[in-house]
């Protein structure tokens, strides 16, 4: 008989927390509870990957209708109905939330719809006033988007807000050059919003392969996104009549002037009533936007949880410090997912949750493997990537770079200028493929499979031995014979 109410108390009902809870209860027979103060499913399901991907799908239909004519179809492009899409989207999120709740229930996990904090190494305090004891506590509280400390930054929205907009804006400024900024630039542009994007650095998607990010940036511009690098917001405020008039008179922003009256007249709901917003950029331009979206990073959800008081160590940005087994400085407390700020991706949080259960409940100490994680950025076109970028690899050892860029059959036939990129970084010494980078429609699907080969340590010759699937875009990944360059 345990001295505790539970063997495991999980704080946070997102992808990582739910997986750990139900595997500990269902497979390891542990007595488990989970507390969540918001919707079950967490960032990925409720305000991240899932609704974002559905929005990517929605945004891609405009191009499909245009291209269909080249293929002999007579399809009529109607307007996009945000309200109709949003209500279907919300229905789907409700369904998924229920799936998560049912999974927990089916595994015998007790759930508390309450905010939880840590009151001791084995004690969890709930906002309902109850206190529960547990042999182990797992913190899986995720993260939240942050605004920069620019004055008036509260006028801008963050990614969480996008899915609740009553109306789409006519014009949108997106600040940031990471995953979220670039994905939403493509989505909103596809849905017919005039998108401007400011990124403070020289090229978007810092840290990824330079050639790949260069092609994504070029394609975004070709599709009509006004992407400005070396730019940030210097000042912002609610647009006054004067701002609107002077913005209308600015030669560089002439196109916008015609829209000022229309924008003033635009019916914006109380929820969205933050625009129009006047923005002065660091390179001197002034412009009025209906909406500003800050996609300037995310911070861990570790505040006001009593963590430091019980001895859990936090990093500079509030991330919970853990070892390879996700154990914190307090032996009975573990943490997984974005709150630890290791690799902030849903499948990684799930892996961390599974490794935690193996370690703590199945007597099989399992460190989390963070090497060679494939990932995709759902820009348009998508980028799929695994392993080292050319720049990282050449700093490490002598490499060969195999690379090809071409116009894919489907869009070339429709008269589009779109290009795709297939790239392999190969170690000269071991012949292993150190990195694979794909920019192409469906790159997310392709990199999942290429990721298996790279993770297995496949050499360039292993790729070469594989027969091409013809005619596809991805066949190029096994047909590149001569290195483009060596470094
Ligand atoms: P990122 O950290 O990827 O990007 C933040 C961006 O904001 C960077 O371009 C950064 O610039 C810029 N920035 C930061 N502070 C400021 C500032 N004060 N002023 C102007 N710009 C600023 O964060 P995201 O919010 O895009 O995404 C968070 C995480 O979510 C990602 O790291 C990823 O792990 C995950 N994610 C994954 C997705 C996927 O797998 N497809 C999709 C969406 C999110 P700089 O580069 O100069 O630092």
Structural write-up:
- It is a single chain.
- This protein has helices at 15-26, 42-47, 49-68, 82-106, 159-162, 179-190, 210-222, 241-249, 254-257, 260-265, 307-310, 346-361, 390-396, 409-413, 443-455, 460-465, and strands at residues 6-11, 32-35, 110-112, 116-120, 123-126, 131-139, 143-145, 157-158, 171-175, 194-199, 226-229, 233-238, 277-281, 286-289, 291-294, 298-300, 333-335, 375-377, 383-387, 399-406, 420-427, 433-439, 485-486.
- It has 487 residues and is an alpha/beta fold.
- The chain has three domains: 6-144 and 298-361, FAD/NAD(P)-binding domain (3-Layer(bba) Sandwich), CATH 3.50.50; 153-294, FAD/NAD(P)-binding domain (3-Layer(bba) Sandwich); 375-486, 2-Layer Sandwich (Enolase-like, domain 1).
- A hairpin with a 4-residue loop joins strand 13 (277-281) and strand 14 (286-289).
- NADPH dihydro-nicotinamide-adenine-dinucleotide phosphate is lined by residues 148, 175-181, 183, 199-201, 206, 232, 295-298, 344-345, 375-378.
- NADPH dihydro-nicotinamide-adenine-dinucleotide phosphate binds next to helix 6 and strand 18.
């Amino acid at each position: 008989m345990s001295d505790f109410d539970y063997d495991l108390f999980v704080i946070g009902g997102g992808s990582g927390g739910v997986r750990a809870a139900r595997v500990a209860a269902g497979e390891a027979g542990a007595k488990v509870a989970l507390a969540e103060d918001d919707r079950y499913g967490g960032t990925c399901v409720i305000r991240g990957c899932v609704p974002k991907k559905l929005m990517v799908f929605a945004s891609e239909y405009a191009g499909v209708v245009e291209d269909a004519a080249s293929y002999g179809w007579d399809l009529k492009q109607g307007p996009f109905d945000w309200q109709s899409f949003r209500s279907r989207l919300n229905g789907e999120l409700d369904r998924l939330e229920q799936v998560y709740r049912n999974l927990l229930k089916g595994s015998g996990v007790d759930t508390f719809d309450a905010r939880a904090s840590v009151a001791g190494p084995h004690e969890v305090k709930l906002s309902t006033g109850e206190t529960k004891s547990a042999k182990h506590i797992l913190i899986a509280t995720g993260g939240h988007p942050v605004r920069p400390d620019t004055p008036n930054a509260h006028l801008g929205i963050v990614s969480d807000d996008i899915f609740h907009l009553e109306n789409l804006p006519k014009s949108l400024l997106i600040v940031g050059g990471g995953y979220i900024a670039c994905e939403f630039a493509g989505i909103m542009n596809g849905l017919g919003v005039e998108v401007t994007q400011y990124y403070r650095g020289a090229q978007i998607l810092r840290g990824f392969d330079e050639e790949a990010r260069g092609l994504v940036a070029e394609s975004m511009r070709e599709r009509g996104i006004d992407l400005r690098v070396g730019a940030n917001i210097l000042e912002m405020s609610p647009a006054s009549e004067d701002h609107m008039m002077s913005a209308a008179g600015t030669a560089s922003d002439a196109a916008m002037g015609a829209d000022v009256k229309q924008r003033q007249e635009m019916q914006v709901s109380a929820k969205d009533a933050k625009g129009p917003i006047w923005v002065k950029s660091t390179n001197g331009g002034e412009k009025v936007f209906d909406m500003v979206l800050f996609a300037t990073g995310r911070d861990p959800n570790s505040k006001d949880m009593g963590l430091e008081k019980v001895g859990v160590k936090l990093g500079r940005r509030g991330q919970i410090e853990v070892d390879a087994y996700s154990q914190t400085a307090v032996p009975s407390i573990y943490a997984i997912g974005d709150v630890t700020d290791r690799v902030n991706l849903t499948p990684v949080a799930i892996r961390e949750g599974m490794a935690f259960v193996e370690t703590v409940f199945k007597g099989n100490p399992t460190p989390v493997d963070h090497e060679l994680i494939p990932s995709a950025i759902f820009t348009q076109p998508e980028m799929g990537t695994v392993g080292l970028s050319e720049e990282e690899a050449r700093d490490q050892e002598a490499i060969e770079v195999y690379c090809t860029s071409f116009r894919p059959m489907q869009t070339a036939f429709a008269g589009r200028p779109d290009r795709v990129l297939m790239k392999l970084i190969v170690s000269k010494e071991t012949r292993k493929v150190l990195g694979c980078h794909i920019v192409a429609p469906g790159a997310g699907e392709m990199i999942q499979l290429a990721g298996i080969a790279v993770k297995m340590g496949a050499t360039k010759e292993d790729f070469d031995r594989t027969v091409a699937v013809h005619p596809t875009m991805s066949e190029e990944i096994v047909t590149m014979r001569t290195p483009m360059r060596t470094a």
